[in-house]
Amino acid sequence: MTSIDQQPLGSPFSATSTAQDITAGLDLSGASVVVTGGSSGLGWETTRALAAAGARVVVPARRPDIARSALADVKGCEVVPMDLTDLTSVRTAAAWISGSRTKIDLLMAVAGVMATPERHVGPGWESQLAANHFGHFTLVCELYPLLAAADGARVVVNSSAGHTLTGIRWHDPHFRTGYDKWLAYGQAKTANALFAVHLDALGRGDGVRAFALHPGKIITGLQREMALQEQIDRGWVDERGQVIAPDFKTPSQGSATGLWAATSPLLRDLGGLYLEDCDVARVSAPDAPMDDGGVRAYAVDPDAAARLWDLSLAATGATPVL
Q: What pTM, to 2 d.p., does this model score?
């Protein structure tokens, strides 16, 4: 994959498309799907849309009882306990999934955290990098044999326009020299994009393709650790917490690009791409405003993706993708 591949394909969908627009008429009977974060926000919309199309969906969840309640009316959906910041928990969930499935056709990495207070988890990892990247990295590596067993599996990773805040801080990825919650978020989102680039490079021979995406600006539980006043100051919401920003999407619209990545025939034989608004994104200039869209070159750079993959393998001890 090169930046030349980062060119829109002329998708019939757009920024205003909804989950229902993407899955209308889609038959996913027999498909086996994993959706992290699948019980709230964009993940909830994603799970419901895929299940309505006939897929059997597994939702790994940090709070399984709450997840089961949220998904009680969704047929063909199972919940398994999993905490992305606890790799023992991730491996236990992966083992359960492996014992109950013969293949995985689609893995949607929707779960994430944003702009959280400084926390370190595990062996001292910065928590946003751990939750958004290391946890998903380990889950995908452990489930890779099931992905390879499918006929054309896809892995779809939610990144964000927040990746424009910074590339990977190779000198200090865990912020030992001073914490900035937005740089930590930006690094984690860049990691999501790079993860898709190298997973696709490794997996395409087995028919496993990977994509990263910006879902758009949406108010969901992702903002749960941001003070209301900060959201007001940013022009996102009013004093009652109601969305007032004109460029925000609904959760259904926010889930559409991920569902398009998961199912679009336009993406057949493609992979390692960064998507937005239900199409392939262009590469953006280094100084372009975040809200102008596009993907920074450093977030789709194959050499950086390979370097991050090696760093992640060493950190997590995940099963290598062979």
A: 0.93
